[in-house]
Predict the 3D structure of the following.
Amino acid sequence: MSAVLEGLVALITGGASGIGAATAKRFVREGARVVIFDVQAGPGNALAEELGQDVYFVAGDHARADDNARAVAATIESFGSLDILYNNAATVHQGPIAEVDETELRRQIDACMIGPYLMTQAALPALRLGSGANRAILFTGSVQSIIVRPGYTLYSMVKHGIAGLVGSLALELAKEGIRVNGLCPGPVDTPLFRAGVSRIAESPEAGIALRLAGVPLGRMIAADEIAAAAVFLASRAAANITGVMLPVDGGICA
Ligand SMILES: NC(=O)c1ccc[n+]([C@@H]2O[C@H](COP(=O)([O-])OP(=O)(O)OC[C@H]3O[C@@H](n4cnc5c(N)ncnc54)[C@H](O)[C@@H]3O)[C@@H](O)[C@H]2O)c1
């Protein structure tokens, strides 16, 4: 079977760690050339080096329009086009509303909403110039784009915002043949997951046990399982799928 992303060029935010890194690896295995964009230069450069000549790393913060413009320009310069934008980067916040100060509120909205919005604006002109064969924008939402949990007002707010963005943007870009979809992961053991449970569990293991209690299939989700769904949504196999928020969550949202 031929690689399903053969000939396509992808830009992945938050690609230096966790779900983004697993997706960069899978995309390359499926024939794509990939630009990894992340604030973490060390791990980002190391991953790009590990994956070889089909991967390029750009350091930057997606909440900064100039960083995003630089990433898109580097993508075109390195690989000649942009077919898939994966807005994956985010940070997490856990804690009651009374404890969220204005700085944290704005920081979380910047990292989880302004960033994907600005990156999409930066990438659209390049996506519009694409070959037309298969252009897609993906977002990482969360099960908290669909359900909510107490103590996660800020995270639930921004992840529900991503669901609104996916639906509305899918309709806006449908006439141009650019598809827009989101992934809604259940618990994946990454630095972000550990930060999210650190205030409500005594240890990462206790945090995992806490989360698993609500997962019908009864196990953590592997980052590579989110990546597999991302490959599908980005590929020609999903050519008639747009505006969907797909749970990859062991049944949490059922
Ligand atoms: N891990 C989970 O259980 C889980 C569950 C649901 C949703 N998610 C979502 O999955 C996505 C990826 O998270 P992960 O779990 O792989 O976490 P992670 O911490 O492993 O990776 C997130 C990456 O995003 C980067 N990043 C953060 N802010 C950035 C910014 N402003 N600009 C550029 N890069 C930035 C980080 O440096 C990091 O490399 C996030 O959108 C997260 O909300 C994760």
